[in-house]
Design goal:
Layout: H1 5-12, H2 17-32, H3 37-56, H4 64-75
């Protein structure tokens, strides 16, 4: 009988950090194998567009805490 997800997680979380990282990479890679190549191409195109906007100064980055503060102010939270 195959292990349940909870059993797999319980076994994996006692591994050393480097082994857990390798396992996580392998799991992500196994998912990536099933992704439509067109989705990957579209994603990379968007990433490059955003990178170029940052490099050109068209987009200005803010730190995470500042961004969260702005979102909270806008939503009233």
């Amino acid at each position: 009988m195959p292990m349940s997800l909870e059993e797999i997680f319980s076994a994996a979380k006692i591994l050393p950090n480097d082994s857990r990282a390798i396992l996580a990479e392998k799991l992500v890679a196994s998912i990536e194998d099933d992704i439509d190549p067109q989705v990957i191409t579209s994603h990379l195109t968007e990433v490059k567009k955003r990178r170029d906007a940052i490099r050109s100064g068209k987009t200005v980055l803010i730190n995470g805490a500042e961004g969260l503060a702005k979102v909270r102010a806008m939503t009233g939270r």
